[in-house]
Design brief:
heterodimer, A: mainly alpha, globular, B: mainly alpha, 5 helices, 0% strand
Chain lengths: 434, 163
């Protein structure tokens, strides 16, 4: 390891442990490392990377999906999806748990945010399930893990970040489609676990069966919400919109649904929603900006190639490599939030894996699945803490109830790691595989 | 100090809200001109990217004021309160120094260089230097919030928390 990289790694880790915001950790570590290289104007160089790192029209989809997610979260869309899911799976043993998972998948897909799914779906479903005799910590565990499926089922902001981090090797449309099957598989895995636990504990079951006409009405009422996904994905797939334009249409659509149609968001709530979108956006974009500066230094010092060589010296076996990288990502994911993890580790690991013949789309899905598990684990787990807050419980009480769901997630991860077709089949059929 | 922070918050928040709203309208206009009028507007894409740079950087200052930036509080949370406040002092200090040196000083030099090279944007014909002005300006706000954060922690320490 060269001296500038040693400086970079040590200062990054020290600052991170001291709770310096990750975006600044990356910026400061980069500046220190450039200073030790000696011959570059460090301050201007980093300032320049910050400006050019976020100078991209494709990235604009991120604030727009955040904004439409916020409008949806406030706009009563979750409730209509819950009714719809109830018609589909509510009558089985553990029905409400299944409804919860299915709604999280639908809502997470529409809003693209796992935190929004935990608060919008969990805020309604957890109390309801408690009332029907399901156990609170079980309900919370279901919600927390199911909420992450929305990050795999498109549209999804983290996938746009991944596409950027690969340097555009992977198109946004392709990675969106690659996530569909794995996302549904994770959802099914969670449903199986929830059903088994519910049967064993005699939870729920025999929710009133609805008549055919009632079911049809519920479906009709959910259509406008479901239509959003179809407009966005259809538009991108058939080349009608770019991802950014589609996201702007999503904002308009969710605005119309939430304000004049469902009347659940008032005009006077809008400034706050815009502001919240601005703040969340800038948190993500400052991360992107400084990580661009950091990856530039890493690339200049040949770090990805060195790590590649180091890993390949250990083993050239594809399975062993995947296993090592999965384990590493799982550990990283428990400590670091998703966006910085994707930004930092994609450029480092991608060359090794493509070198042994793993498709960049496949790797993207593996990475996101790994980091999804990290969202539900201590010490740093956005969904976990949000869920505990909503359900008024503690991490210690949740852990024993969430473990079976982790097993489902890890098993699906292993399956998706070793069967690339699960990620690559759909983009291939749609002609998105280059 | 509290009053200064409130004025700062309000100004930046209004700027941020308006910029996000303009962004949405701008890109919708692009979609409209492409699909309805059939003659896509030439400047909307560029305006959107420039606004995005300003939103991201100005918002970064607001986020610092609200403590919204992502960090790892796992280790510092285990410290006794006094130590924790001391680490927070350190955090605000390094953030301020970074913002001052890289964003204000480096950013200003970047703006000067770009203006001197007379780099002009393709569609809107704006000198790129003005777009990059977002860096030193946001840097200045970050330094302000950093210093406010420092002062708040100092007062806390002086009052002797957790005695």
């Amino acid at each position: 390891m060269s001296f500038p990289i040693l400086v970079l790694v040590v200062s990054f880790v020290v600052l991170l442990v001291l709770n310096v915001p990750v975006a600044f950790c990356m910026g400061i570590a980069t500046v220190l490392s450039i200073i030790t290289m000696g011959d570059l104007p460090a301050f201007v160089a980093v300032a320049h990377k910050i400006a050019t790192g976020i100078d991209s029209f494709a990235l604009l989809a991120i604030p727009f999906f955040i904004l439409s997610g916020l409008l949806m979260g406030h706009g009563g869309i979750a409730r209509r999806l819950i009714d719809f899911a109830n018609v589909l799976v509510g009558r089985f043993r553990g029905g409400l748990a299944l409804v919860n998972i299915l709604t999280c998948m639908l809502f997470g897909s529409i809003s693209g945010s796992s935190a929004a799914a935990v608060s919008s779906v969990g805020g309604f479903m957890i109390p309801l399930m408690n009332k029907r005799g399901y156990e609170n910590n079980f309900n919370t565990a279901v919600t927390i893990t199911a909420a992450t499926t929305g990050l795999l089922i498109p549209p999804s902001n983290i996938m746009i970040v991944y596409s950027l981090a690969t340097g555009g090797i992977v198109s946004i449309a392709a990675i969106f489609m690659a996530g569909v099957v794995p996302g549904i598989l994770v959802g099914l895995g969670l449903m199986i676990v929830a059903a088994v636990i519910s049967i064993r504990n005699q939870y729920g079951g025999s929710e009133k069966t609805v008549s055919g006409s009632q079911a049809f009405m519920t479906f009709l009422r959910a259509i406008p919400s479901l239509l959003l996904v179809i407009i966005v994905l259809g538009g991108i797939l058939f080349g009608v919109f770019t991802a950014t334009e589609a996201s702007a249409v999503a904002v308009l659509y969710s605005f119309i649904l939430a304000v004049p149609v469902y009347k659940e968001v008032k005009i006077r709530d809008l400034p706050d929603i815009l502001l919240q979108c601005g703040v969340t956006t800038s948190v993500v974009f400052l991360l992107i900006a400084t990580s661009m500066a950091m990856s530039w230094v890493l690339a200049a010092e040949n770090v990805p190639q060195d790590i590649s060589r180091g890993l390949l010296a250990l083993t050239e076996n594809k399975v062993a490599l995947l296993l090592m990288i999965n384990t590493l990502l799982l550990i990283v994911g428990t400590f670091i939030d998703m966006t910085p993890a994707v930004l930092v580790f994609t450029p480092i690991f991608l060359p090794v894996l493509t070198g042994v013949g793993i498709h960049p789309l496949h790797f993207g899905i593996i990475m996101i699945m790994n980091l999804c598990i990290g969202l539900c684990t201590p010490p740093v787990g956005t969904c976990l803490f949000l869920g505990c807050g909503i359900a008024n419980t503690t991490v210690t009480k949740i852990i024993p109830r969430i473990l079976p769901f982790f097993i489902a997630m890890i098993v699906t991860l292993i399956i998706c790691s070793y069967i690339p077709a699960l990620s690559l089949w759909l983009p291939d059929v749609l002609g998105l595989l280059k | 100090m509290g009053k200064l922070k409130r004025i700062l918050d309000k100004t930046l928040e209004v700027l941020l809200m308006v910029s996000v709203a303009v962004l949405v309208v701008d890109v919708l206009w692009q979609v409209f001109t492409r699909f309805v009028i059939g003659n896509p507007s030439s400047w909307t894409e560029e305006l959107a990217t420039f606004l995005l740079i300003w939103v991201s950087l100005l918002g970064a200052a607001v986020a610092l004021g609200r403590g919204a930036h992502l960090g790892i509080d796992y280790f510092t949370h285990k410290l006794p309160e006094r130590c924790r406040i001391q680490t927070e002092l350190f955090v605000f200090a390094v953030v301020s120094i970074f913002s001052l040196l890289v964003m204000v000083v480096g950013g200003t030099r970047l703006v000067m260089l770009t203006l001197a090279l007379e780099q002009i944007s393709v569609a809107l014909h704006i000198p790129m230097g003005y777009v990059y002005l977002a860096i030193p300006i946001s840097g200045a706000f970050l330094v302000l919030y950093g210093v406010i954060g420092l002062m708040e922690r100092f007062t806390q320490l002086k009052k002797g928390v957790a005695l």
